[in-house]
Amino acid sequence: MYTHMKYTMDIYNNTLLCDGCERKTMKVNVVREGFQLRAWQCPDCKKIWYHPADQLEYDNFRRLKTQTFHVKLRLVGNSYTVSIPREIIDFEEEMQKEMQDMIRMVMDEPHKLSLFFTNQKVRKVY
């Protein structure tokens, strides 16, 4: 009888060899624009290979960051509401797996309002 087993192995659990030096690489974490990316680095030539899943999430963020969204400001009761584009919510849900009902809002400068989906300062991509 054939039994299908689902394995969820992560490439990060394996050892990589540098293609130039043929030395064993070290696991490192690299922070880029608030993202913590898992990577391997050669101790000799310092070449870095990023985890493919982490790199994909970072690339998705970079794509969203370059877009400008035009949204409407609406009056609801005594408050104003702004619609957050679906692409941003989908990205945040994927990053956090559980979206919290509350977000933090801060008036940074006279013409700058920031929304925070989490209290974390460094986003971990896993």
Could you describe the 3D structure shown?
The protein is α+β, with helices and mostly antiparallel strands. The protein folds into 2 domains: about 1-65, no CATH class; about 70-120. It contains 2 helices and 8 strands, in the order E-E-E-H-E-E-H-E-E-E. It has helices at about 50-65, 85-95, and strands at about 25-30, 35-40, 50, 75, 80, 105-110, 110-115, 125. Strands 1, 2, 3 and 8 form a 4-stranded mixed sheet that branches. Strands 4-5 form a two-stranded antiparallel sheet. Helix 1 packs antiparallel against helix 2. The two termini are about 35 Å apart. The model has no long low-confidence stretch (mean pLDDT about 80).
Count of β-strands? 8
Q: What are the secondary-structure elements, in order, as H or E?
A: EEEHEEHEEE
Shape: elongated
Number of domains: 2
Low-pLDDT ranges: none
Name the helicity range: 10-25%
